[in-house]
Amino acid sequence: MTQKTNGNIRKIQHWQIVAIALAVYDAIILNISYFIALWLRFDCSVKMIPQDYLKPYLYFTLIYMVLGLIIYWRCGLYSAMWRFASFMELEKIVLGTGISFIVQVIGVSVSVAIVSEEFIRMPWSYYLVGFMMQFLFTMGARFSYRFLLLVKEHRSNAGGDFHPVLLVGAGSAGRAIIREMRRFGQGHDRIVCIIDDDANKWKRFLDGIPIVGGRDMILSCVERYHVEKIYIAIPSAAADDLKEILNVCKETDCSLKLLRGMYQMVDEDQISVRDLKDVSIEDLLGRDTIRVDMKEIYEAVSGKVILVTGGGGSIGSELCRQLAKHSPEKLIIFDVYENNAYEIQQELLRDHPELKLCVEIGSVRDSRRLAQLFKKHRPQLVYHAAAHKHVPLMEGSPAEAVKNNAIGTYKTAYAAMCTGVERFVLISTDKAVNPTNVMGATKRLCEMVIQSFDHAIRSGRTAELKNLFCHVSEGAELVPEETPHTEFVAVRFGNVLGSNGSVVPLFKEQIAQGGPVTVTHPDIIRYFMTIPEAVSLVLQAGTYAKGGEIFVLDMGSPVKIDTLARNLIRLSGLKPDVDIKIVYTGLRPGEKMYEEKLMEEEGMKTTPNKLIHIGNPIAFDEREFLEKLAALMQAAYREDTDIRAMLADMVPSYHPENKE
């Protein structure tokens, strides 16, 4: 149906047609509801209704009809979507009929005074029965529409093909998922049973769906109901509980979707089936997400000039993303690889057009470039993420690891000290603890470098810190301030899921190619964390820094790489050793069976964040260390073959297991 307005044809919407039909229906029931009350009061006979009662009713009925329609309209009874009618719509009906009842009482009382020769009172049953009839007629017409739709849906689901879904969680989030699936439909998916660990809910029903038992019933229910998909809607679950449930679910061949913990504080009306995401490997770690005090971070970085070295890498780019959200005065990205730097630059310009962003290309090994960079921008905070991190590759090129990691860190720290940087945060790794490979040993040297700088500043011995370079020094000269005040700290964490060189992208690629998935050893274990968690730790550590600390994340229990690979295969809907083979290739050069977070002699201190700890610095002869570091640099640039022996001499905890 269409109507013409100012020469334009406008289509009348379906809901408007429904509203008109409801208004006609309401006009009728507003007239007859109270008449039925009189008719019932006088033995269902119109002739027996006294004229003193009938005349006031007839006098007021048309006025009441008009007023009633206006009241219904104002209460929203013609704009609601009745196919989704709920308690809120019931409230509107109660409000509309309640207000119109008051109008009826007042109006009929006035009508009695006008049309009757003497004042009489209408029977109480007239008002009560009339109100009940009007309420039932009003509600019945509207809710019967939803009831018919539900019956139709049930019949369509009972016949035909559908994908049985098992829902884990009979709480408010689970109920919201059920109701949205019924409202909008989700293709051929239908929830057939519910699992919940609350025994009080067992053998009961949620919106007509049976709650069959706890998590121990998942496997049997999958077989009994021929379940093809599992939806997990328990956003408030503890990490250990969620991990246990996921471990059970992944033993099935069902596809898994998860409502993550971010929705636990959201109103259930805002939860959608679209919020269910595929289960990722991070969900199987069994560790609570790190919580950081964003107010502390904001106060620490807001209005500051911040430099991120290695800003195009996986950790460096995430640092830039999170720093950009906290209103720095200027953010400088420094990276030797221009493609990565360009990508994060374009992302930040798109997401934060107000950000003052500078991208500088160069290497932390270049003293001249560092001197020019620090003099130009005068950063107040430096996050040093630039490093070579790939263990097997560094075993084959130990001199490059020394140049980039150890010497690059020294040169960057020296430039920071000379130009008045307030805080220098080194990104370290758990591979620096009792290292068995060149990469870990050079990262331990990085930690020793920042400890040397911190001690030199505190003891007034900065003159012992010399700028290191192997070329003509012109353009590289930097003179320390009279009283340097830079705070130097390190942040140590384990493997980062999804980072460059991580096993997870490699496993995913191997799975996509049909296998095999290569694992070095069936018993090798690692600590894992997500990139955003690692970066939030770095930022939080910066707020706790007083100088010289090594901050360490409590990453929970380590994970077997073999288990990680098998979980990834299952999450891809495949079976390990059946669809995708797992091949054990043997430990790579310099690879440990397990990683450590702290050396035994470092001890442990606490911070306000219970997942962040501080390791006590290990004492060493700093003068001797600096002399040996200068000699190590010369050896690295000469490509000497005894680099590992020099590393072992400088890092007593370094015990290379694979030598060439």
Structure description:
The chain folds into three domains: 11-154, no CATH class; 162-279, NAD(P)-binding Rossmann-like Domain (Rossmann fold, 3-Layer(aba) Sandwich), CATH 3.40.50.720; 300-496 and 527-556 and 597-650, NAD(P)-binding Rossmann-like Domain (Rossmann fold, 3-Layer(aba) Sandwich). It contains 19 helices and 24 strands. The termini are far apart. The model is unreliable at 262-269 (pLDDT under 50). The protein is 45% helix and 15% strand. The longest helix is centred in the first third of the chain and has 35 residues, at 124-158. A nine-stranded mixed beta sheet has the order 12-11-10-13-14-15-20-24-23, sandwiched between helices. A seven-stranded mixed beta sheet has the order 5-6-4-3-7-8-9, sandwiched between helices. A two-stranded antiparallel sheet has the order 1-2. Helix 11 packs parallel to helix 13. By secondary structure, it is an alpha/beta fold. A hairpin with a 2-residue loop joins strand 5 (204-206) and strand 6 (209-213).
The CATH superfamily label of the largest domain reads NAD(P)-binding Rossmann-like Domain
Provide a count of the helices.
19
What does the radius of gyration come to?
36 Å
- Strand portion, in percent? 15-25%
Query: Which percent range fits the helix content?
Result: 40-55%
Total count of strands: 24
Oligomer: single chain
Shape: elongated
Largest sheet: 9 strands, mixed
Going across the biggest sheet, name each strand in turn: 12-11-10-13-14-15-20-24-23
**Any low-confidence stretches, pLDDT <50, length ≥5?**
262-269
Structural class: alpha/beta
CATH topology of the largest domain: Rossmann fold
How many domain units? 3
CATH architect. name of the largest domain: 3-Layer(aba) Sandwich
